[in-house]
Amino acid sequence: MGKEKNSSVSRRNFLKIAGLAGAGAQAGAFVAAGVAAGKDSESYTGWESFNPGTQFFNRKPFEFDGPAHAPVGEVRRPSHITDYVFGRVRTFQMAYQVNPEWTLEDPIEDLGLIPELVEFYKRFPERLEWDFRTFNETVPANREDQEKYGNFFKLAEIYSSGFTSHGMHLPSPESPPEESDFTVSMRGRSHQLDDPAPFKSPELATEFFKELAHRYGATLVGVTRTNPAWLYSEGWRGCPDDYDFSSMPEHWEFAIVIGVPMEWDVILSSPQFSTSYDAYDRVSTAAVRLEGALKFAGYAARAHTPMTGYDLIVPPHAVEAGLGEVGRTGFCITPELGGNCRMAVVTTNLPMVPDRPIHFGVAEFCAKCKLCAESCPSGAMSMADSPDGMVIRGYEHWFINNGACYNYWRESMGPMGCRMCVATCPYSRKDNWIHDVAREVDPRDPTGVVSSSLLWMQKNLFPYPEAEEYRRPPTGRFASFREPPFYLEAERYLDLEIVKPRRE
Amino acid sequence: MFNGSLFWFAMGVLFVFVAWAFKTFADDRGWRLNWWKGLLALLWYAILSLSLYAWGTLAGEGEAGAGFKLFLIGLFVCIVFGAGLVRLLIHRPKTQAEPSPQ
Asked: Chain B: residue nearest A429 by CA?
């Protein structure tokens, strides 16, 4: 009997010890499983294997009757000449090269700029200073930096150039919308559209082309009506100078908006190692494919993309199409990709059912977050608690000094640009369970406690270099938000003299 | 290996084993482990497991430092919650003598 009892106790002790060992094994396995989840290729939204699964956020509970944009003042259409920073700086620089004696103290009229630009600079004098500084100080300084540190960022430029060189070959309209949008071009031959394919209903037509858009490479797809107030006031592609830009072509009635993310590890190594061109190329390619499909179905279409050019501004259309909400950064923050989303539009006359805009808490979150503005190397972003009173072209939204922003583009190393506001945005996170919990819970919390807690964690658990560190030496060190992925490390691959920038 | 269905099946089997061992441990200590106390113990284990999983996930996406800090927060919650849980488990309600009929 006694022997039996001892054996029984021993079995119980063994069970307890084995259970403790099992708990230890589970602890290790949970960490290992977590690492696997964090590295999982399926968490790279938009870069994984099957695109239609990428628009995974259920927007239905957050939809509302639009429009999401209500004018608060006189609406002015955007201009390539003034609002579009590249065109503006180029025009200014060309005028300056003719009058190199001109200084900021001299009247702007002396430069012989077109009246619209003179008026713009008088309204926004800080842009005048920033634009002047860009080509007069920053670009020459950057040439020196490229000589000294360029090799350190060389692989990032090589990575980017593959996308750029492909995207440059995408076709751009060469005649006015009334002609090019109704013409199919293939192998050097052009012909008019066939009769429109009769879809059973606009709902089914919408469904069909959304499915195609995903398969052409779009991570996100939405449909809205094109807003004439968001067309550029001049300079549409393929149009002569005397073209009538005052009204929207009727066949631009619908806008299919698509979005694609920049590569996730690369974007986190902003500003120096990241590039916009991976997403520019992919979203442009998808849009051009979609344009082709619409035309072959017999409907007029025109792609407005980063690589082939735009005749309209995309972010407000994306917001109206329910892809996301406008944030402090000025671009469309989406639930799946956050700000890491490059977009394109295909305008068409195919009758479709527009999507409804969504509200999932971005406006409230942006009001208290400010991480993008704090990290902005050029200080271009507003630090205000609210966009109240910031009216741009008749609409109220956060103010961004695109002159200061562009100035840093030309200061940074690697592929041109910055993208810090994309990288630092807490919404720009991959598709793993930990971020998905935040995605799903925060928009459903009306108290704001969840967003405040998440923001506290974001600011206290995650490292954020000082904005100054992204600047050029001696004040900065050309820092990156996160280390670049291994395949962009020049020291690993290149047999070159490589100088790593340091703070002096 | 660590995210397939077989892995999670094995984790489930292991968890049953751990729960069985805990029940044996509680019985041997004379703890009265009713359903809601068992549920609280399960919740404690879930928080600890989730903290470890979160640490690993953030480490996997290149934010090991943030993951470790998040784990420490989870560990702190576990310690506080665990101390209360142990007091609850070892607590024995005093048995009162039945009043005399007269």
From this structure: B61
